[in-house]
Amino acid sequence: MSTPFSVEYDVHFSRVGRGAPKELCVGFEPPPAPMPCGGIGRIARLMALAIRFDVLVRTGAVKNYAELASLGRVTTARVSQITRLLHLAPDIQEEILFYQRPRRGRDPIYLARLQPIAAVIDWKKQRRMWRELMASLP
Predict the structure, then answer these.
(1) 55, 90, 99, 116: which has the highest count of C-beta atoms within 10 A?
(2) This prediction's pTM
(3) Which H or E run contains 95?
(4) What digits encode the pLDDT tens for the residues 48-103?
């Protein structure tokens, strides 16, 4: 006659992403990774894109911004909106590049909010407008 025996394992189920199938993993569940801030904001990506556009035109990789627009399959007006970010004061550009979007909800800083600031020539006025914008954010 055989004797019954049991086998015990510590298991946990993990999922890579939303809607992904669950995986059975042997062992204890690892502690959750610290939740990063919301990640890179859209406006930071647009600022980096504006800088990249400027480099491409200055080095001669593309003839002009119209050629960039056709290569990117967007209008020249959209390229102009993005490249207008280059008119911001350097310290504002730096803050935008390192801006992290919030974990939840919509990003409170978007291109339409920055266009009036970029239209101002005086960097002191730009900085004041930027501070006012940042103070008004939730």
Answers:
(1) 99
(2) 0.70
(3) helix 90-97
(4) 999 999 999 999 999 999 999 999 999 999 999 999 999 999 999 999 999 887 77
What's the CA gap between 124 and 16, in Å, rounded? 47
Q: Is 9 left (phi over 0), alpha (psi -120 to 50) or beta?
A: beta
With respect to residue 59, please indicate whether it lies within any of the assigned structural domains.
yes
- Indicate the pairing of strand 11-15 with strand 22-26: antiparallel
The full length of the chain comes to 138
User: What whole-number percentage of the chain has pLDDT above 90?
Assistant: 61
pLDDT value at 122 more than 80: yes
Q: What angle do CA 97, 98, 99 make, to 5 degrees?
A: 95
C-alpha pair distances (Å), 108 with each of 43, 84, 104: 10, 19, 11
Q: Which residue has the tokens 């914008």?
A: 133
Q: Which domain holds residue 71?
A: 42-136
Residue 91 lies in a domain: yes
Note whether residue 25 is domain-resident.
no
In whole angstroms, give the CA distance from residue 6 to residue 85: 66
pLDDT of residue 34: 55
Sequential DSSP letters for 45-70: HHHHHHHHHHHHHHHTSSS-HHHHHH
